[in-house]
Amino acid sequence: MRYGLLAGVFACAFSYGSTEVSFAQEPGNVAAGHRIAQQWCSECHKVDPAQRLVNPEAEAPTFEEVANEPSTTPLSLRVFFQSSHENMPDLHISKSQADDLVAYILSLKKEKGK
């Protein structure tokens, strides 16, 4: 059963003339995530590479640093947003807001070799 379903997925992917299998893009809107980050996170985090830190003593990682951590994935970010953390406000964000923040943070990931 699983093999048949998997074969069907690959057949659909190749039927569009592509030689690569492409999976659905992560949900979320980068621009909306940037707005949310600026509104809620920029007091402690440098959310934009061009931003100056509001509170340099906050010792919070930049969003670019978070994006480039090897352990950062869409799932790890969503779990983080749903968990309480010391020295951080308790985030009460919707699934779509989390998706937007994930999209924005991952947009800051640098390609290897650059």
Secondary structure: elements and pairs:
Blueprint: H1 2-15, H2 30-40, H3 63-67, H4 74-82, H5 95-107
Helix percent reads 40-55%
Radius of gyration: 18 Å
CATH superfamily: Cytochrome c-like domain
Task: Please report the total strand number as a whole number.
Answer: 0
Q: Mean of residue pLDDT?
A: 77
Share of β-strand residues = under 5%
The CATH topology label is Cytochrome Bc1 Complex, Chain D, domain 2
Regarding CATH, which class?
Mainly Alpha
The coarse overall form would be: globular
User: Helices and strands, in N-to-C order?
Assistant: HHHHH
Any guess at the CATH architecture? Orthogonal Bundle
* Cα separation of the termini: 43 Å
Number of helices: 5
How many domain modules?
1
Task: Describe it.
With 114 residues, the chain is mainly α. It has a single domain (28-107), classed as Cytochrome Bc1 Complex, Chain D, domain 2, CATH 1.10.760.10. Helix content is 46%, strand content 0%. The chain contains five helices and no strands. It has helices at 2-15, 30-40, 63-67, 74-82, 95-107.
Keywords:
mainly alpha; globular; 5 helices
Give a short synopsis of this structure.
This protein has 114 residues and is mainly α. It has five helices and no strands.
